[in-house]
């Protein structure tokens, strides 16, 4: 692990392999370890960089400065420090929001955009979004982060054969700083691209799961609004597809990258 000072904070990251850059961005309340099943696979052919976003893992945890916009500027400054001019951005869940914002704000950095079980408008998801915001805030305030980590992890990995995945994710989640997690969550739920989505020209690949929190139709709807996007749905998978179906995910992403 290494640290880079970018946008007034320290970002912890790992850097493996050589070639075109794949930048892998993790989900809310997690760390770069979301990508443990992707790094060995893709670092054979690419330079694979994983980092902990602000407020997460071993990166800085500011008191008040959170939000997708800030995380996006962190990533831009991080790439500038490494003198990387272009990368394929692969964003899972909250990481997908950061990847989307990067493609909207700084398209010259984004060679390809890969969005994994995420969306372009967390602030406009209808009843699903409203319920998630109110129920999670209430859960955090009444039961705390440790219980929330247990619940999220069980919902993501409920099968008997997924116990090890569940326990590993729960451990990552409960190790969060409460304030950093809370502010990351509420600012994420206040973020959206709106009409900027249609203006993104970048070649885009959206990967969804058949049992994700949001239905397949949700992904189909926003993919159809984009200039240059395709969609792949992975079966027998919940929200954490990069973790619960890594072979299928890696295969689909490799196919997309091979057809550049």
User: Approximately how much beta-strand content do the residues carry?
Assistant: 15-25%
Q: What is Rg?
A: 17 Å
Order of helices and strands: EEEHEHEHEHHHHEHEHH
Number of domains: 1
Range of helix content = 40-55%
- Could you describe the largest sheet, including whether it forms a barrel? 8 strands, mixed
Broad shape: globular
Strand order of the largest sheet: 1-2-4-3-5-6-7-8
Number of strands: 8
Let me know the CATH homologous superfamily: Alpha/Beta hydrolase fold, catalytic domain
Low-confidence stretches: none
Number of helices: 10
- So what's the CATH class? Alpha Beta
Mean model confidence by pLDDT: 97
Please report the distance between the alpha carbons of the first and last residues.
Answer: 30 Å
What is the architecture at the second tier of CATH? 3-Layer(aba) Sandwich
Q: What is the CATH topology descriptor?
A: Rossmann fold
Q: Structural class given helices, strands, pairing?
A: alpha/beta
SSE layout and pairings?
Elements (H helix, E strand, L loop, with lengths): L1 E5 L2 E8 L4 E5 L13 H4 L4 E5 L16 H14 L5 E6 L1 H12 L4 E7 L10 H17 L1 H12 L6 H12 L3 H11 L15 E6 L6 H10 L3 E6 L6 H4 L1 H13 L2
Parallel strand pairs: 3-4, 3-5, 5-6, 6-7, 7-8
Antiparallel strand pairs: 1-2, 2-4
């Amino acid at each position: 692990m290494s640290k880079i000072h970018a946008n007034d904070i320290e970002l912890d990251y790992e850097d493996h392999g050589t070639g075109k850059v794949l930048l892998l961005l993790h989900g809310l309340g997690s760390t770069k370890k979301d990508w443990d099943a992707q790094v060995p696979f893709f670092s054979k052919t690419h330079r694979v960089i994983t980092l902990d976003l602000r407020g997460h893992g071993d990166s800085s945890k500011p008191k008040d400065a959170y939000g997708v916009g800030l995380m996006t500027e962190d990533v831009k400054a991080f790439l500038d420090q490494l003198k990387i001019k272009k990368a394929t951005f692969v964003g899972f869940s909250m990481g997908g929001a950061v990847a989307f914002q990067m493609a909207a704000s700084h398209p010259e950095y984004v060679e390809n955009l890969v969005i994994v079980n995420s969306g372009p408008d967390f602030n406009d998801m209808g009843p699903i979004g409203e319920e998630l915001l109110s129920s999670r805030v209430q859960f955090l305030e009444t039961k705390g982060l440790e219980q929330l980590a247990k619940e999220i992890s069980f919902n993501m990995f409920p099968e008997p054969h997924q116990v090890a995945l569940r326990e590993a994710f729960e451990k990552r989640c409960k190790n969060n700083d409460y304030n950093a997690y809370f502010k990351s969550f509420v600012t994420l739920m206040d973020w959206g691209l709106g009409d900027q989505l249609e203006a993104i020209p970048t070649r885009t690949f959206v990967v969804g799961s058949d049992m994700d929190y949001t239905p397949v139709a949700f992904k189909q709807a926003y993919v159809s609004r984009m200039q240059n996007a395709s969609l792949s749905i992975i079966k027998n998978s919940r929200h954490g597809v990069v973790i619960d179906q890594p072979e299928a995910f890696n295969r689909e992403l490799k196919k997309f990258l091979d057809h550049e």
